[in-house]
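Lecture notes, unit on binding sites. The following record was shown on slide 14. It pairs a sequence with magnesium ion.
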Amino acid sequence: MSMPAAYAAHSAASQGRRWPEESSASRAEFQRDRDRVIHSNAFRRLEYKTQVFVNHEGDLFRTRLTHSIEVAQLARSIARSLRLDEDLAEAIALAHDLGHTPFGHAGQDALNECMQGYGGFEHNLQSLRVVDILEERYGAFDGLNLTFETREGILKHCSADIAASLGDVGRRFIDGTQPSLEAQITNLADEIAYNNHDIDDGLRSGLIDLEQLAEVPLFQRHFRIALTLFPDVAERRRINETIRRMINTLVRDLVDTTNERLTQRGPESIAAVRAAPPLVMHSEEVRAESLELKRFLRDKLYQHYKVQRMSTKGRRIVGELFGAFMSDPRLLPPQYQAKADIDRARAVADYISGMTDRYAMREHRRLFAVEDI
Ligand code: MG
């Protein structure tokens, strides 16, 4: 492996953990962060949380877990190309969705609505809350006690109000500075991953088709190449050949454009990266194409009536669970009852957001299905 660049985050120069710990003889700090995320409860729950398709709809669809692993793969290879810290990129990628509710964005929207008047609910902020507070693995402290750099990467966006309550990790939202390049690339790796895998899952589910995708230039261009190269293979293989080419185009464009920016700007340290404007980006053409892809997914897949039906159900389950626990906290499991004594709404939101899709459905049945008494 080549030497990390001067502008990379360096494990040995980390701004540290909230509770000081001795360093490990065999593992770098960001590597330990990555390992802690993998061993967390919240990470294992990602397996049963919806990305777009509810987990039980089919075994081949992405879940939050496989999505996070794909993001980590992309972030890691982009980090390697740019001589950044691969462990940090991977730690941020694996942790970035830990705070997601069951039922994808529908669940988050429902919980956020319920939490109006109690400080709201935002999955990105919740991911930080999971690693800072909610995981219970250590004797001496709550949370996973991750480094500042991993925590800052997890917190992708944040209002100035909330940022002010978060201490050091919120400061950049107030003073308008940037996070590490590792955080910046992971953010874009997330987009590359979901745009492409949602096309793939969308086609597999039959909710979108190849004819509709003729209006998406990025797809169409690569599909034509795949068709020329492989005129006789099964369509599924041709789709895979198309998608791998799309991912490759996006990743290469990101690496090339970012490399140019880094050469122009020449940041000599992570401090210079923080003070500079965002340095990780796509070229104008590719950005425009990827926006078109996004728009297509929003109109044709995320708003498809079959996806909407699932979303509506998910919203209803989350809303009704919230209402039941708020009006009678004695329905909560004991460890959450204790927390509810301090802040009822936040304890209920923590409990619900931690649920997997199937656990939320089971819990809903236990509370509302009269025939199950
Ligand atoms: Mg994501």
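Take-home: The mean pLDDT is 95.
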